[in-house]
Amino acid sequence: MNKQHIRWGIIGLGRIANSFAQDIPFTTNASLQAVAARDGDKADAFAQRYGATHAYDSYNALFQDPSVDAVYIATPHSLHLEQATEAMRAGKAVLCEKPITTSPSELEQLTAIAAQTDSYLMEGMWTYFLPAVQKAKQWVDTGRIGKLLHVKSDFGYPQLPYSPDKREYNATLGGGTLLEMGIYPIALARLFFGEDPINVDQQSHLAPNGVEDDTTTLFTYPGDRYANLASSFRCKLQNWTYIIGEDGYIAIPDTWRANRCLLYELDTLVDEFDDKRESLGFHYEVEAVSQDILEGKKTSKIVPHSTSMAFQLQIEQLRKMAGSLQPCSAAL
């Protein structure tokens, strides 16, 4: 691609889209070109707030805008398959917020369409791009904690009062804590162990409409190694990750948005890292994806399609074990 930066469009202008747009100015290779919402007034206000050139009251209008190179999809999970498909068929690169789809079969369809249209497609697991998380991975890979034995990770915020119509609980929108929050701990276990567990145990609590609202999971890996993961709509969890080895452990505070990590030997802090950023942290992902697109790549080496499929397969397994309702979305 013979250009210096990627012009982004955003659809679905909620909280996370605001964070994404707010961080684009911290990049060196991206700009915000267009935004779209069902409500034209909302799109106009968002565009004015973040300096987008165009605002649309139709997602398709944004997909057809020739000045847009890439689309960030920040709508509910159940809409991702349809909207990412439309964007790629319109010739756009796609960064789709996690979870990229609500089932493995949907992801198979989406990656097939990416191949058919020769399009860039990546799931927006922004946590993988944070320098603190990458530093923790480097410490593990270079033997700073010895043999890896345990990963403990959780993510939970109260989503109360309960309502079956609230997006987080709405079964037709892919509601439930595993797709909404549990994907973060699952992703951290995948990042550090780098393989599938050989055994899975789980305890879950279901909301009145049948979607899971609290889960605790134990993954067992070869060599008697374990990941203890949790997610919740019922309470605030610590939201930290601990990577524990024979010789020490790493703590990552507020892992999903981490700006620092801490290395311990027993109770002694021996090393620490702080990225000292001024942004929210989304710009690391935006910069990396924009560079991929500029270089003509079709997938990310940080979040390849195989990693997204691993998330989907594990979440599907856990939802079946919990007995929670399956999300409703139409196959294309």
TrEMBL record:
<dbReference type="Pfam" id="PF22725">
    <property type="entry name" value="GFO_IDH_MocA_C3"/>
</dbReference>
<dbReference type="InterPro" id="IPR055170">
    <property type="entry name" value="GFO_IDH_MocA-like_dom"/>
</dbReference>
<dbReference type="Pfam" id="PF01408">
    <property type="entry name" value="GFO_IDH_MocA"/>
</dbReference>
<dbReference type="InterPro" id="IPR050984">
    <property type="entry name" value="Gfo/Idh/MocA_domain"/>
</dbReference>
<dbReference type="GO" id="GO:0016491">
    <property type="term" value="F:oxidoreductase activity"/>
</dbReference>
<keyword id="KW-0560">Oxidoreductase</keyword>
<dbReference type="InterPro" id="IPR000683">
    <property type="entry name" value="Gfo/Idh/MocA-like_OxRdtase_N"/>
</dbReference>
<protein>
    <submittedName>
        <fullName>Gfo/Idh/MocA family oxidoreductase</fullName>
    </submittedName>
</protein>
<feature type="domain" description="Gfo/Idh/MocA-like oxidoreductase N-terminal">
    <location>
        <begin position="6"/>
        <end position="123"/>
    </location>
</feature>
<dbReference type="GO" id="GO:0000166">
    <property type="term" value="F:nucleotide binding"/>
</dbReference>
<feature type="domain" description="GFO/IDH/MocA-like oxidoreductase">
    <location>
        <begin position="133"/>
        <end position="250"/>
    </location>
</feature>
<dbReference type="InterPro" id="IPR036291">
    <property type="entry name" value="NAD(P)-bd_dom_sf"/>
</dbReference>
<comment type="similarity">
    <text>Belongs to the Gfo/Idh/MocA family.</text>
</comment>
